[in-house]
User: Fold this.
Amino acid sequence: MASVNLISLCKRFDNNIPAVRDVDLEVRDGEFLVLVGSSGSGKSTTLKMIAGLEEVSEGEIHIGNRNVTYLEPKDRNIAMVFQNYALYPHMDVYSNMSFGLKVRKVHPNEIDRRVKEVSNILGIQELLRRKPKQLSGGQMQRVALGRAIIREPDLFLFDEPLSNLDAKLRVKMRFEIGRLHNDSKCTTIYVTHDQVEAMTLGDRIVIMKDGMINQVGTPLEVYDRPSNRFVASFIGSPEMNFVNGHVTRVDESLRFVSDDGYLIQDLGTDRLLRNADKGVVLGIRPEHIKLMPLNKGAGSVQVEVVEHMGFQTMIMGRAGKTEITALFDRNELLKFGDNIGIDIDPANVHLFDIESGVSLVGE
Assistant:
């Protein structure tokens, strides 16, 4: 196991446009860290630089007490699991798992011991003599995991390993990866575009956009206290609602009024007094909106879509020109065209600067 330190890490390709810009990040020994972001955010490029598969334009990479910035991948003592599994098609499962150890001239008895131990952990002991073409997607992913685990590396790197699996199998494999990390305690960096994977797997999450880090924190920290509007919109499903408006002072308290006047929300006396009388964006998560009688609470919404999700009912509608998504109890009998009242707890309101998108909470 080892810590990882990225120091002012940058990557520029031939067009000189930076794919990764000034990334400073410390991954703690034994931590499961997730890099998450949309396509083009720089997360996979960052991972490939750590692995040695992409050259570093500027900055340094340290694994443990070694500067590995210019070392070959084979000299970094890492194991990487890819999206496409990258199994050798002409080799059976046993040979795929043991190949790396053979190259390193590990004794055959030790190779056999490790293959059997890891295959038992992953439940693939019955597959050792099969070729990759005889395996399902989930089985191939387990073999790829086994090939990484068997090396006993200082660092595990995962590059969107579950993207090719169906939804049910992704959930199962998330559990397996989490369980394996809890057992091994090996430092792990995991790249995904799926915020659900990030929230469920990571000890900490790194949200990236345009090659830069926007926020680092535990899953609950980035969910409850997003640093900007992008993070607030990216983390959470359904996405956070955003309403343009302005904050005004009413006696000693503050009040948010949407631009079209359809939502009016008291904010209390203990926040953002310095930001009174200015335009802001109010953010509220769908699960923090309460159903109220019409003309009660913060405003009214005309229902346009109702989705029954089994354990909850999700509605999408409009408060004036603003689209609103809310999650209610499954027993709420709502339909298209209903006008409903909604209320918002001030403690769950987020406020963002209307131009920069930076969170105003705590200023």
